[in-house]
Amino acid sequence: MSSDPYSDRGNADKSITNLDGIGSAQPVKGDGSAYPVDGGPFLIGDTMTGGYGAGPDILHDCTIAVERGEIAVIVGPNGAGKSTGMKAVFGMLNLRQGHVRLDGEDITKLSPQARVAKGMGFVPQTSNIFTSMTVEENLEMGAFIRKDDIRGTMEQIYDLFPILRDKRKQPAGELSGGQRQQVAVGRALMTKPKVLMLDEPTAGVSPIVMDELFDRIIEVARTGIPILMVEQNARQALEIADKGYVLVQGRNAFTGTGKELLNDPEVRKSFLGG
Amino acid sequence: MDLLNAVIALSNYVIIPAMAYGSQLALGALGVTLIYGILRFSNFAHGDTMAFGAMVTVLVTWGLQSLGVSLGPLPTALLALPFGIMGAMALLLVTDRMVYRFYREQKAKPVILVIVSLGVAFIMNGLVRFIIGPDDQKFSDGERFIISARTFKKMTGLEEGLAIKTTQGITVITAVIVVALLFWFLNRTRTGKSMRAYSDNEDLALLSGINPERVVMITWLLVAALATTAGVLYGLDKSFKPFTYFQLLLPIFASAIVGGLGNPLGAIAGGFVIAFSEVTVTYAWKKVAGYALPDGWAPDGLIQLLSTDYKLAVSFIILLVVLLFKPTGLFKGKSV
Amino acid sequence: MNSALRNTLLFGIIGVLIAYTGVAQSWNTALLILNMGLISAIMALGVNLQWGFAGLFNVGIMGFVALGGLATVLVSMPPTTEAWAAGGGGILAGLLMGAMTIAATVLVIKRMPASTLRNAIVLAILIGGFVLYRAIFDPAVEAVEAVNPAGTGYLGGLGLPVILAWPVGGLLAAGAAWIIGKTALGLRSDYLAIATLGIAEIIIAILKNEDWLSRGVKNVVGLPRPTAFEIDLQNDPSFVDRAAGLGMDPVLASTLYVKLAYAGLFTAVLVILLILAQRALNSPWGRMMRAIRDNETAAEAMGKDVTARHLQVFILGSAVCGIAGAMMTTLDGQLTPGTYQPLRFTFLIWVMVIVGGSGSNLGAVLGGFLIWFLWVQVEPMGLYLMELITSGMAEGSALKAHLIESAAHIRLLTMGVVLLLVLRFSPRGLIPEK
Q: Model pTM?
């Protein structure tokens, strides 16, 4: 039998239930508050341990961090907990142990919405756009928490991704894979985040589009926004990384600058294909 | 002249009643579709929500009537409607706080919420019957007709009369206003867009800083307004009886599904499709045929395809046909 | 406390509740509750097969129950020979015409490629078939319904023993379930809930309107019984003697005797079905059903035909509801289509299943008894409560009158509250699935 008393017993009846777009996050309850702490990197998930709901732990004392003005990249084999680590940093699952700190504040107890308000932006790996809404509406939703005029920021996004300007009245779900990723990144940039987290932004796009996306990401980083990124294309990602993390089974296996990891024979052998 | 008479008879017995009924179904289906899109379950308590809102309106109407307040030719119930809406809003917010919210926190699957809504339906149904009783209640007043059959005949000299009841007129006009407001809200306002975003992708809405609890709350408020309006209009047009509202659930669900669950435009289209097919299939066409066909051609029978008792069956057969050919409904579902 | 002890205790409590009703109110009432409790338990067992084993959401229980009721009439009532002579052939021919039209439509849709021509042909077949059907059917119906409308006015049944109606009711419900399941489960996405909701309403509409079939809202009364009639017992000297020997009034003794006889029959059916359901649950078939339920994708990957299994369990569950429906109509001695309400015959059964424990057969049985007991007893309890509350109010006050009058509706309220409380605080039900 299933352990969840509120499971659906395999029912997939479309005439009474709507499973499209249903949430899977188990967000941190929002009643906690942030408190100041000293020092440390700009954003850090420190010795995090936890998993989904009552399930087994996926992360074990896992630490990922990014400094101001830098690009940090997380690589590792499938199922290493890379995406889970990102979600944990964003408060999309409850940690059993460990802390998340941002810009001198401990935000472990903040809800995801509160973290957005604190200046964090996150682009998930999949389902990262509102497919039924237009490109422009996607960007508007990105800026949902802002009360000021967002037109300037939207212009900046259109300058960064010119194709989106032409498609702004089209439903985002009708765009190509690469364009969708641009919408996704654009949506996250609309809050004017202090730090941007990207979960495999180049997944499923062609190599040419991938190169272009990397260029854009570097461009964003040059504007001073630190970027924490999970990447499948480890070699290419580590080349642009200031800091690299190799995760294996939810644990930190190797940590160093991008160059160090690229030159580490162990890392090369196991993760970069020689 | 005969053709004109046929058109008038058709309008009188088919088009106008179906327009009014279609508007009521559309408003009901909009509520169902909003909940389906945002809370992700089919609310079996929707009919009873309509009954509750209508009941509050009926009670306030009686109060106003006893105070001598009236709207002249219009039914006093229109004045009481805002109170009914507020009553329904209060009820739904309390229900959400006491019942549904717990299951959201537990991440209960939508089908569990369907079962929960069954329990809520029982309670609301009992509540309404407890307060106002299970019987028919009349609460419409004011002018009965915008135009009566007799005046129409006198005006035009035609054999057939065309009667438009005040309630039918009000129903259609109110429905148009409500639908326009709803679409403006969903497509033009920030809050409305955030509701569509939440329906489209819950997790991403969370990442955009949209507060799910607020979205849910606004949904319930909208649903209360839609359900009460639909319930009051239906009650004015026919009569208020708690049990009929429960039975309205099937045509309302059928409308929402025919149109494409989760799609407001679909809910409206579905409401009219169901209403028109119900009325046309169960209408005795003898009179219209008598006018429209050449002399001597008109058949002897009533030319009624199905007896009126089968109108529920009609909505369902339409539903099945649509699903067989377009599994997502007329308009693609899931895009509140 | 181990589960066996706990379950025994729970059933013990039900027993005590019913026994207490017997002592405090009357044994007649107690036996009425027991008998309908047995039938409710069977219905809940059927729904539990569908929801508990397979996660199928059936909201058309009422329809299957009503079909069982129809079976009782069709099997047990004597045929109306006059009506058969007047229009029996016409009705059969009309129905055959209708069936042929549908078959032809399906054939054309299946055999011809999609095109405007095909649609035109389908439309022509449907319209032509419908006109023909009405032309044959309508006069025959009129003729049948004209035969002694106050007494019969319908074709009657087969005049067979009423007990036979129980399996036939199951078969009838199974047939309907097959049609619904074939259509609703076969669609690209699953639309079972709305399909069952609609079909149930259609079945009731047919029962209410097709007077030639079962007299519609004029009801069929005086159904044959599987047990003795009270009046015969009262006229039987040996029965009267035995009643007197027990110190009982023969009238009371006869009603109790008849009800006990029913209780015996119903218990036998319940026990058989419960044993079958338990064995099914623990058989390889049951394990497979649960595997599909808990992970459909994996089961599909292992080569299980999920749709076929769902169809199977849906038909079985509906058949059980049909049997219960036939039993209920037998107990009532009449078929009254006007009394079929979704709240009572669909949603109340759901409350029984959820309160008892989804996926647990024993739970369904317990839920059936407990909820039925509450359904019957909440009303007098509510009345008592209202009288207590209003005892301080002035005699003849409108509020007092309203409150006492409204006590009847507390029943619905209570069902909702019980369902919500169990879902919230004991979501697995009183006897959780193992």
A: 0.93
Residue A5 lies inside a defined structural domain of this protein? no
Domains and CATH numbers, chain B: 2-325 (1.10.3470)
Q: Are residues C371 and C335 in the same domain?
A: yes
Same domain assignment for residues C113 and C261:
no
Residues of B in contact with C414 (CB under 8 A): 126
Q: Note whether residue A165 is domain-resident.
A: yes
3-state secondary structure of A264: coil
- The model's pLDDT over A224-249, given as tens digits with 9 standing for 90+, comes to 899 999 998 888 889 999 999 999 99
Q: What is the pLDDT of residues A11-70, one digit of tens each?
A: 888 889 998 888 888 888 766 688 888 778 899 999 999 988 777 899 999 999 999 989
What is the reported pLDDT for A86?
A: 94
Q: Do the chains contact at C183 and B309, CB–CB below 8 Å?
A: no
Greatest alpha-carbon span in chain C: 82
What percentage of chain C reaches a pLDDT higher than 70?
99
Chain A: closest CA distance from residue C37 (Å) = 27
Tokens representing C58 are 């059936």
Query: Other CB atoms closer than 10 Å to residue C282's CB: what's the count?
Result: 11
Chain C residues 39-68 with CB within 8 Å of chain B? 55, 57
C309 and A CB contact within 8 Å: no
Of C398, C341, C351, nearest to C378 (Cα)?
C351
Question: How far is residue C95's CA from residue C67's CA, in Å, rounded to a whole number?
Answer: 18
Q: Does any domain span residue A204?
A: no
Taking each helix axis from N to C end, the angle separating C27-48 and C61-76, rounded to the nearest 10 degrees, works out to 120
Question: CB of B66 within 8 Å of any CB in chain C?
Answer: no
Domain span at residue C307 reads 3-79+156-425
Locate C64 and state its tokens: 């299957």
C359 in reach of chain A (CB within 8 A): yes
Predicted confidence (pLDDT) per residue in B219-232, tens digit: 999 999 999 999 99
Q: What CA–CA distance (Å, rounded) separates C226 from C263?
A: 12
Q: Report pLDDT for C420.
A: 97
